[in-house]
Amino acid sequence: MAKTLSIVMLCFCLMLVLLGEIQASSPASQKQGQGSNHANGMYGATQGSLRPQECNPRCTTRCSATAFKKPCMFFCQKCCAKCLCVPPGTYGNKQYCPCYNNWKTKRGGPKCP
Known about the structure:
mainly alpha, elongated
């Protein structure tokens, strides 16, 4: 009797694990995860969340308020290519992208705008 009960419990646990695996790998849950990333505004602001072709529009937004657009765009795109993220807004918020924040010039100043 105890042996049968333990086999039934084991089968039940395996079914739960398999159901969780199927649900986690379904295309609907992956699309939902991407949508929530866009909805909360963190897409592209966290390290490694951008694709290289998405750097130009992000850097255009980042450098929109500066008087030095050409150097800002140059360094922003260079940093984005390395870090695959651009902090949100036109200034600050570098805590969202540690790579972008920690890359320094030879003199120790910030490399990324």
